[in-house]
Model the fold of this input.
Amino acid sequence: MTTAERCDRIRDVSKATVYRHVDLLAAGGIVEVALERRVRGAVERRYRLRRDRAGITADIASSLSLDDHRSGFAAALAVLTAEFTAYLDRETADLVADLVGYRQHAVWLNPAELHGMIDGMWKAIAPHLVNEPSPDRTRYLTRPSLLPVEAPPPESRSDDTAAHSQSPGTGI
Done:
């Protein structure tokens, strides 16, 4: 995607800011130039994400301050909001037909269950990351996030909490 195309998708951010951030991402090795071509005397660059550099490793995460994490999370939410706003601004936006969702589930997990859930989510998503664009494919943004929100209770309860769980179903 070119920076100009990115600007068209993120309308509530100035072009100068988008260009500056793309330059920072390129300088940091997060994106790389996939193609360059001359357009009306200027060089147009098409960038691609370097998936091997786009994530935050455990070593990097542990070196960041809480404020760094707070800022990164806020930036991720801002991008998600911009993408959702761009979707809603389309004349063809149909949240029900497009199976748009923004659910949140609270689950109690021990460390083994947590790792199993993460592994299961990765196994569900990973095979689709290599899909190429085609006339029968729509590009979807999926954004799993995970954080503990409550400490374990002092004693385990004996009631059957599984009986109270609900299927996630489809939609919002």
Summary: The longest strand covers residues 31-39. Confidence is low (pLDDT under 50) at residues 160-165.
